[in-house]
Structure formats: structure tokens, C-alpha cells
Amino acid sequence: MSSLVNRQIRLVRRPQGVPQPSHFERADAPVPDLAAGEILVRNHYLSVDPAQRGWANDEGNYSTPVPLNSPMRALAVGEVVDSRAEGFAAGDYLYGWFGWQDYCVATPAAVLRRVTEKAIPLTASLGVLGINGLTAHLAFHKLGRPRAGDIVLVSTAAGSVGSFVGQLARIAGCRAVGVTGSPEKVATAVARYGYAQAIDYRHEPDIEAAIARACPEGIDVFFDNTGGAIADAARGLMRLGGRIVQCGTAATAAWTPPPTGPRAERNVLTKRLTWSGFVIFDHLDDFAATAAKLAALIESGQLIYDEDIVEGLENAPDALTRLYTGENRGKSIISLV
Amino acid sequence: MSSLVNRQIRLVRRPQGVPQPSHFERADAPVPDLAAGEILVRNHYLSVDPAQRGWANDEGNYSTPVPLNSPMRALAVGEVVDSRAEGFAAGDYLYGWFGWQDYCVATPAAVLRRVTEKAIPLTASLGVLGINGLTAHLAFHKLGRPRAGDIVLVSTAAGSVGSFVGQLARIAGCRAVGVTGSPEKVATAVARYGYAQAIDYRHEPDIEAAIARACPEGIDVFFDNTGGAIADAARGLMRLGGRIVQCGTAATAAWTPPPTGPRAERNVLTKRLTWSGFVIFDHLDDFAATAAKLAALIESGQLIYDEDIVEGLENAPDALTRLYTGENRGKSIISLV
């Protein structure tokens, strides 16, 4: 047994809805000795992600719920301090499922990506080079299939994924139009995230009319993180052969039973749409190559990213709660170093 | 001016809903001399298609409505009797937009396919080698992307397209399950159209439960000609990575405003579905090669087709009306020879 003490944030009560600090507790644990095939990672930065709500609730759509009284499931970036796994050595930097804690004993299966970029801060691995940027790039290019000149509409344009889709669309020669939830986010989307125009859906009496004004020629790619009324409006404005990329459904709180909305069959048929669903963890094999493309865009100054970094493990639960009030400005990160 | 008399069925009143014989009139017209670039086709067989309802109404989604007092728009197969167009000669057989009439003066743009199969009756060009069979093959293979072992669900399984999709699915090594609207059609779907099992949706109190029983492992390809309640049920039973091919929306009579149904976003996302729309006239370049594949399947006895042939031009309107009562058994065709 190592003499190290591992500070953890554990899930101790199961939330209904948005997790609150009261659902978590700080606790210390020993760091066990490594078994063969294991690595010991010292976390430098922890990720705070909207998806953690689903992992904490017991209605996980993609994964089993986090067991009570265990460290909160989280992505993190850290340094290997000891290794009994082939191919991993002390000093390697890794991005993976290392949890809200100081140290993680992991197997290589928990590693999503090796961090090799020397010129880019390590925090970038949690956002633009992590699942947010990778989702934006892979979903936009693989499912959205953009062509230069396309009109690209993005819901949650100033969000963790949308902030990159706007920029990637601009880089691909498209005209990006964003939908977001405040005048401030509209301004940021246009000033920083590549959008030619953005719409504040909370202050539009008729969202379909607003999108139609912003996209008078229609929409070729709809990158949808919300579903709901924005999606209904966008679907009616798609051009022939348009692509809808379903990347999230943030507008709908509960799916049992599914809420109703306008039927989509006729639009899919007459517009020859392709509507497809994207889940980043289906695309692990593309992570290294896609992160390299994103890193090159960052280094050349074409792609920017914003971060909201809070110091201290103990602040992770509060940072998670704040995600759902929209208070964060950029990728939410907990610094341990 | 030729001395030939061209008997026509003209649209003289615009129907609301299903066209009735009273919306049409028989009339004679002269056959004009050919201008440069034109061909004169003598129709042998006329097609009677559900889509003619949309062409006769003034709500055409794909095309302008048929002008009143002109021959009813229709596909037909016939023989070139005179040609002033390069590449066409008397004796050629053609499938194209030749209308409900004896003769058509056409340009090459009206031709969908040259009929070259000698061993297959000419009528086949209107159904299995026409848009029905071509739709089944192209939509199933290009959008459905079947793999051996896949579970394929088809709505309107005994219909003009579904009767081929079941057979093509079986040929591709899939298990085809059909949904259709009578005990008689269930029997035909299983006996003749390649379905391992079929469901009579009119006599099922719970269509989702019935589909789930027939597809206990879920659905990989949903070939949908109806939309509506059958589609809602199928969507919830799709497997990861499933494909929905939207080929028709027969279950919904009117789309202005669109009726509501359960929202699809969550299924599309969590099941990573690909839901796409198919319109056959986008695929003209594939007609010749695909018809050759279908013809080979017919000649080898792997693909069968049923026809409901009525003699006499004057019977075309009644044959159209009967399509919507489900009385026809096989592709509805009017014989002029």
C-alpha cells in the first residue's frame, strides 16, 4: 500500500434532476499498490460535464449509474506516476476516466487518449481536445458532411460543443448560424465562435420566423444539441438533401413517456433528409487523428477555446450545479495543481 | 399531321382526396407531326399509381399539378413508332412519362429507361422493373444498407414496393417482417413476398407489442412506407445503428398543419439511428444498372411479381380509384394491346 492519500469526491445520495453539492461528500482513501496491468495516474485537471447528471441519476442511457459511495465518475487529465501496464510509463500524460479524485488506479481501458501536444496547455485536453472538440469535429464532418457554401444551423451555439462547431463550419467555408439563450451568448457566438449570426431563442416570439430570417436560403446542416421547438422549426427549413446531426436533446427534461411534437416523416421524405444520432464513445478509434487536426487548428490560431477553471477538488460539486444555471463561461474545469 | 387518332383520358376536374372517375373524361386528339428532337411512342401498357392522386390534386409535393383538360400524367411502356431524336429508332421499347393515352409525342427527357429485356413480359417494366422495383432495390440497398442477419421491418409489406423489399431482404440474408392491413395480405406476404412473418395491424390491439413479439431482437432496418403509429412503434424497437428508410407517409392524410406524434430525437440519438428520405426520381442514373439486377433475379426465379391487368384505356380512372380501397392484387396496369 502506498503512503499517498487520495482525496475523493464521492456520490453519496442519488439526485433526482440536477445534482447538488449535498449529493456528494469529500473523503480520503488509501492508494492501493498496482496490480499487473494497472497504472497510477495523478490527476491534474478534472472535467465537469453536463453528462454527469445522467451518470449520477439511475436512468443512465449510455452507461450504468455511478455506484453510491464511490468517487464521482469524471473525465480527467493527469500524469502517470507509476505503471505496471505495457506501453505506459511514468511521465506520460493521459486523458481518461480517472474520476473526481487526486489519484486513480486505472487500466488502459480507462484511457481515451494520450496527450502528446507540448505547445498546448494540458487543460485543453478536457475540452477542445477532449470529448467536446472531438464531438464537434467528428459529428460535424462525419455525419454533417459539410460542403463549402453550406448553411449550418447550430443549437446551443455558445455551448461546450457548439462553440467549436461554429468555428469548424467557418473553417469549412460554411455560413454558421447559431441559436443560443441570452444576448451575451449571442454576442460571444458571433465575436468568438465563428457564427455569422446568432439568435437568442429566449427573446424570440417566433423561433421559426427568426431562423427563417437568419437562413433565408434554408439549412443544409442542422447540428442539434437540443431537440424540441428549435429542432421542429429547423426541420421545416431544411434544404433538399440536408443533414440533421442529433448530438443532444437538452430541450427535453424527461423521455418517459416521450413528449409529442410535430411529426417528422414528411420532412424527412420530401426533403430527402439524413437525420442521424452521434455518441462520441462510438468513435474512440478516431480520437488520436482528430485531436491532431484540432491541435493544428489551435496552433495556427484558427480555433479558439474558452475555459472556466476553478481551483480545488472540493469545488467540483458546486461547479457541476452551476453548469445547469448557465453561469459558466467556457469549459468547466477543476484544477488540482 | 398524322392521320392517327389519339384516345386520351384527361383530367377535367380537380379532386379533393381520392380521384374518382368523374374527375376524368375520354377525348380524342390528333397526333401532331414530330418536330426535331421528338419521338412518337405508341403506348402498350399504362401504369396506375398511388402517386397520381398527388399529381391530380393541386398540392403536389414533388411536381406541378397536372393541368386541367390535359391527358392524365402517368408512366407507361410503349414502342417507338417514329423518331426525330438521335439515339431513338422505331421498334425501341421505352418506359417513361407517356400519359394515359394511346400515343405520346415525347422528348428524350420523358424517357426513364430503355426496355431491353427480351425474356421478361413488357408489363414488368411498369412494376418490378419500373419505379416500384427500382425504389425497393435502391432505397433498401443504398439507404437501408442491409447486412446478412439483419432484421428488416417493412410497412405496407404487400404493397407495390413492400412486396419487393421482403424478397430483396431475404435474398440479402436478412429476416424480413412485414406489416400489412388484412389477413389475406399477411398470408400473401409470407407465401409470396419473402417475409418470415407478417402482422395485420388492423387487427392488433397493440401494434408495438405485436412488432416486439415478431422482432424480439429488435430492428436493424425499418423500411417505412406509412409513418404514423406503425413508425412510432418501430422507432422504439430499433437496434443500435439502425437505419430508417422513409419511402412514403401513407398513414397521414394531411400535413398542413403536421399532426403530432412522439418525439423522435431521443431514439435517433441514443440508438445512433440514421433516418433518411428516399425519392426515386433522385436516382435516375441508377435505373439501368438496377433494372438489370432485378431482371437477373426474375430470370433466375428468385424474385416474383404480381400484376393486376385491366384491358382498355377507358378503365384507367376506375383502376385508380380502386387502388385506394386496396382491391387490386398486384401492380395495377391498363393494357392497350
UniProtKB/TrEMBL annotation, chains A, B:
Coiled coil: none annotated. CDD domains: PGDH. It comes from the Bacteria. GO terms for molecular function: oxidoreductase activity, acting on the CH-CH group of donors, NAD or NADP as acceptor. The lineage of its organism: Bacteria, Pseudomonadati, Pseudomonadota, Alphaproteobacteria, Acetobacterales. Residues 17-334 form the Enoyl reductase (ER) domain. Gene3D superfamilies: Medium-chain alcohol dehydrogenases, catalytic domain, NAD(P)-binding Rossmann-like Domain. Pfam families: ADH_N_2, ADH_zinc_N. Transmembrane segments: none annotated. Signal peptide: none annotated. This is NADP-dependent oxidoreductase. Keywords: Oxidoreductase.
